[in-house]
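Cross-posted from the bioinformatics board.
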Amino acid sequence: MIEKRFFGNVETDKEVSLFTLKSKNGMKVEICNYGAAVVSIFVPDKNGKSENVVLGYDSAQGYEKCSSYFGAIVGRYGNRIGKGIFVLDGKNYQLDVNDGENHLHGGKFGFNKRIWDAEPIQTDTGQSLKLTLIDNNGEMGYAGTVKLDVIYTLSEENELIIDYLGETDETTILNPTHHSYFNLSGDLTKNILDHHLMLNADYITYVDKGFITTGELNKVENTPFDFRNLSRIGENINSDNQQIKYGLGYDHNWVINNWDKTIKKVGELYEPVSGRFMEIFTDQPGIQFYSGNFLNGEQIGKNGIACNYRTGLCLETQHFPDSPNKPSFPSVIINPGEQYVQKTIYKFSTK
Ligand code: GLA
């Protein structure tokens, strides 16, 4: 049975709830319906000690003020669109510009700043919470009214499964993603530099200094971006490399090998002291690895812990940044009558 409790008010008087999903194998996931945000993920370490491994807040008000998208579903378009402009079916669009001169994560009032409808549902995989958002025509400059269902399921195999189902009444673009900041050590005062990462990608998409893709696919071989084998994140994060400088560390989109729209294992994250191991599976063509370079301790998260520089990392399964302006990138267009579908799984274990 999924527990539900009061989690605070946003917009002065709107109630937000916190839902708790549990598995029989020691995992617990807390989710609130503001931003459809994952608040906590409790995972056993190699000695069976269950600790929280994501950054977050202990009230809804924290998420209302949050500027880092902690745990949220972001959209309508996850990642950036250059200058917030694109042309679709011959029509020019101007989206809200909220990140320098660009559009990021759906704009100032994107999906992470909205109250979602939430209801526990029964699935044969585990405890599930379905959250639904209606994003109206014109919101943040987007065309068409989009209905998006996100179903979080905590399976008995300790998988956090995220299923997305979207539809629109007008041709538009749609590229939501999940934005948890992981720190598998369970000690959120530590940085993530001793985590080891594997990403099944021979290429990344280079960016300019505004994080907008150039349109090229660039080989990771012999660069700081080669995570084809499980590698320590801190090894090359401060390399004298133009893309590392533009990204202020890692903040790039890796191009999943052999993408064919089916779900594949695309990555692994391992923290050697706790032994916690996370595998990432998705049907998306890209994954944004962001090493928490904008965290600066100003945000005080759960248990009064400051969210310091690089104390969490994101692995956002997605389409590529600025796809609406890059014809060579996979399309993010959705038409009336079509279904937007995404499945991403974060599977936890120890080794
Ligand atoms: C994404 C972006 C980062 C940063 C975070 C939110 O991960 O790639 O540049 O904007 O969102 O702070």
